[in-house]
Write a structure and sequence with these properties.
Elements (H helix, E strand, L loop, with lengths): L11 H14 L7 H7 L4 H8 L2 H8 L14 H14 L7 H8 L3 H4 L6 H7 L13 H15 L17 H8 L2 H13 L3 H12 L17 H10 L19 E5 L14 E5 H4 L10
Antiparallel strand pairs: 1-2
Helix pairs in contact: 1-4, 3-4, 10-11
The protein binds zinc ion.
């Protein structure tokens, strides 16, 4: 069908009609100034000049927000909110300026630089600004510290993060905490803070007389990171039966074991936990006890 590329008249109503016509032609697609420029028979500047702004023209033409989102100035709060939502939906991915800009329906230039360094904004929201690759959780970073501490029988050093058996590289700690010393500080603070399950356990220990029926389901079977670290330190990162340690023999694997088994009502408390090597844990440890 042949169509005029210009309007027959340029009355207010004719311009508003043209906006409505283009909106309808887009059938659901977002009506932006750019699309209008491509499809309309009148220049977008004419519309802006006539009605004061593109937004006002949309309002007057009765175009719904869903069809033509009104670009309100992006506030810092809106950006922070978008970043938080993104982090919840994609915890393994990093919210880059591009991704958040797309989410807010604005150009990346609208965001970059406007709220200071993007990395600072992410840190403020509690995220680490990792541009590439996987983001580790605090727990994964701390578990790796315990594993290395057990392996070496002492506080691991920075270089050891980047060699086996470390599972989390030094970069992850530096990005998250700013440095290795700060990361170790965070780790120590974490293990010194009794976990919720440990606290619940202690409370139930005090409230329940020894004779009363123990309900194992009230506490998780897994031993918290902080409790495991305490037991390993107390036992000097050695098997309490055979005395072997990974520090002296890298083939030795240590576990924190329930003295009274969990299945028999054994509790997750320091007094009921001990460090055992894999062999002793299976009950076939070396008979020559060196401890
Ligand atoms: Zn052993």
């Amino acid at each position: 069908m042949f169509e005029l590329t210009t309007l027959e008249e340029y009355s207010d109503e004719a311009l508003l009609d043209e906006i409505r016509r283009v909106a309808a032609a887009l059938s659901g697609e977002r009506l932006t100034q750019k699309r209008f420029l491509e499809l309309a028979r009148v220049h977008v500047t004419t519309v802006r000049n006539r009605f004061g702004s593109w937004q006002r023209a949309l309002d007057l033409a009765g175009i719904a927000e869903e069809v033509a989102p009104r670009f309100n100035p992006v506030t810092r709060g809106a950006v922070v909110q978008a970043v938080k939502l993104y982090a919840q939906e994609f915890p393994e991915s990093s919210p880059t300026v591009e991704k958040i800009a797309r989410r807010l329906g604005v150009h990346r230039k609208t965001l970059s630089g406007k709220f200071g360094a993007w990395g600072d904004l992410l840190r403020e929201v509690g995220l680490s600004p990792v541009p590439l690759g996987r983001r580790y959780t605090d727990d994964e970073c701390f578990e790796n510290i315990i594993a290395l501490w057990t392996y070496y029988g002492r506080q691991p050093n920075f270089a050891e993060l980047n060699q086996a058996p470390s599972a989390v590289g030094s970069k992850a700690y530096v990005i998250r905490w700013g440095g290795w010393r700060a990361a170790l500080g965070a780790f120590i603070r974490h293990v010194n803070q009794p976990s919720v399950s440990d606290v619940l356990q202690t409370v139930s220990d005090q409230e329940l007389p020894q004779t009363s029926e123990i309900v194992p389901s009230s506490a998780p079977r897994s031993i918290s990171l902080s409790l495991r670290y305490k037991v390993l330190c107390r036992d000097h990162f050695r098997c309490v039966i055979c005395g072997r340690s990974p520090a002296k023999d890298h083939s030795v694997e240590l576990h924190v074991d329930h003295i009274i088994p969990w299945s028999k009502g054994g509790q997750n408390v320091e007094g009921n936990l001990r460090t055992l090597c894999f062999d002793c844990n299976l009950g076939k440890g070396a008979k020559t006890e060196r401890a």
